[in-house]
């Protein structure tokens, strides 16, 4: 929706680049998971269609509301804050519970102290670098 509601090229270009790479890598990852899960063809087609349509629909909604949207109104700020906090919460939950926990609980990791240490240091270093990025955003 942010892309559709943007009026200035200086905000559109970075959003297009970010969306393009995000969708590319997310699509590759999701496609791999769908293939490994061995879903029926009908289910795979349905999931692929939903994934393919979410971004264009979001952009269309952004374009539709851009003429009546005042980004500085109190209502818009509250709605934006609620949506961003919900998205951040979902992202944190998925990262910690679904992705990291699965990787860190594998027997190969549990039995090798150096690997465990390297994974934890990498995790903390990545979190620190992402926090530094927030300073520039």
TrEMBL record:
This is Uncharacterized protein. It is a multi-pass membrane protein. It comes from the Eukaryota. The chain crosses the membrane at residues 15-35, 47-69, 75-96, 117-136. Its main location: membrane. Pfam families: Zip. It is found in: Cell membrane. Keywords: Membrane, Transmembrane, Transmembrane helix. GO terms for cellular component: plasma membrane. GO terms for molecular function: zinc ion transmembrane transporter activity.
